[in-house]
């Protein structure tokens, strides 16, 4: 069961930008990230583009199967493209969602002899749908700018320079367009997990809701939609930078709940119009070549500033983090392991030896 209330903090991006309110809002940001691990971010400048993306989603997912399969993820070693319903797994269970995955433009091409995880930096394939590629490239560009500015405020919230996290950034970010179909009440859309693509996730969700967050007390709390907002959570990459002091927050999606409300800025409540759920998460990338040993030295001054919270109850029921495991040579390999296990069809086609290795591996 999950608590039925919006108990996640709200951070106002406009107040972070305003010198008159910045310091007060930085305190809110610090508590939200390091005390809770999830937050709502409101008043960004990406709202219009987000609305355009949502207008496109029903038609995009309604494309004939053969047109969606033309850009199937299984055709890409970079784990980008279309994933049909039931083809991805999380926490050992099948996800009840279909999705398109994309990445920001990367001109580098993997060459024989380079690490296998470098293959994940390959180009995206866009479905043949009017205006899709141009709109998503615009969205990726705007979200890259937003996430970089946000990362600067995270540094300032710790009384550090705004560019303190620049050495950890990467040019490769990822974007998902997700559809959770109508299912029996209480069905799990995606099981408990920690996002693994990098630093922070910026999630836009529609009016249906269903997202739940594992609190510091080890209890599931709901994160109902707030119109025009992004829900931001800590990913495993940022957790690794802090040496696990700031853990990536575990979350899940429950499809088609018995009831769901849509919170607007006027605080009015509206019943959802559909039990099909759409969401658009953007995953801010991290430098995949970083190792845990490197982080211990280059990030020590950051870790010393991170507030330590009492989350023993959460850790007792939490899922493991690949990025903190000594099994992997660097963060890039840890992320590759995550993708191979989550998308076994892609893993078996492009990384057969690693699929065999990782599927038998237990995280430590």
Automatic annotation (TrEMBL):
This is Fe2OG dioxygenase domain-containing protein. InterPro entries: DIOX_N, IPNS-like_FE2OG_OXY, IPNS-like_sf, Iron_ascorbate_oxido_reductase, Oxoglu/Fe-dep_dioxygenase_dom. GO terms for molecular function: metal ion binding; oxidoreductase activity. Keywords: Iron, Metal-binding, Oxidoreductase. It comes from the Eukaryota. Gene3D superfamilies: B-lactam Antibiotic, Isopenicillin N Synthase, Chain. It holds the Pfam family 2OG-FeII_Oxy. Belongs to the iron/ascorbate-dependent oxidoreductase family. GO terms for biological process: small molecule biosynthetic process. Residues 170-286 form the Fe2OG dioxygenase domain. It comes from Fusarium floridanum.
């Amino acid at each position: 069961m999950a608590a039925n209330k919006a108990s996640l903090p709200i951070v106002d991006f406009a107040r972070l930008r305003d010198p008159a309110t910045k310091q007060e809002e930085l305190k809110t940001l610090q508590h939200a990230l390091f005390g809770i691990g999830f937050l709502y971010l409101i008043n960004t400048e990406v709202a219009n583009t987000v609305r355009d993306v949502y207008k496109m989603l029903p038609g995009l997912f309604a494309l004939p199967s053969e047109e969606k399969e033309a850009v199937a993820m299984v055709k890409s070693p970079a784990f980008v493209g279309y994933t049909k319903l039931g083809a991805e797994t999380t926490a050992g269970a099948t996800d009840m969602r279909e999705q398109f995955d994309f990445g920001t433009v990367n001109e580098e091409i993997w060459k024989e002899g380079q690490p296998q995880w470098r293959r994940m930096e390959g180009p995206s394939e866009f479905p043949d749908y009017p205006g899709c590629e141009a709109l998503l490239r615009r969205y990726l560009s705007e979200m890259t700018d937003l996430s970089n500015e946000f990362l600067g405020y995270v540094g300032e919230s710790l009384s550090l320079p705004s560019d303190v996290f620049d050495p950890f950034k990467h040019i490769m970010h990822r974007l998902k367009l997700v559809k959770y179909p109508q299912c029996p009440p209480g069905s799990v859309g995606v099981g408990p997990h920690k996002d693994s693509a990098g630093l922070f996730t910026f999630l836009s969700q529609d009016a249906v809701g269903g997202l739940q967050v594992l609190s510091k007390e080890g209890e599931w709390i709901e994160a109902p939609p707030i119109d025009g907002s992004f829900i931001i959570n800590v990913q495993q990459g940022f957790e690794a930078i802090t040496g696990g002091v700031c853990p990536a927050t575990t979350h899940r999606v429950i499809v088609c709940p018995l009831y769901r409300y849509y919170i607007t800025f006027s605080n009015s409540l509206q019943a959802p119009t559909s039990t099909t759920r759409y969401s658009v998460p953007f995953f801010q990338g991290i430098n995949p070549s970083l190792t845990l040993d490197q982080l211990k030295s280059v990030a020590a001054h950051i870790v010393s500033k991170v507030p330590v919270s009492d989350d023993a109850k959460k850790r007792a029921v939490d899922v493991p983090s690949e990025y903190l495991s000594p099994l992997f040579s660097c963060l890039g390999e840890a992320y590759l392991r995550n993708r191979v296990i989550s998308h076994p069809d892609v893993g078996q086609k492009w990384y057969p030896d690693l699929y065999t290795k990782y599927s038998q591996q237990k995280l430590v």
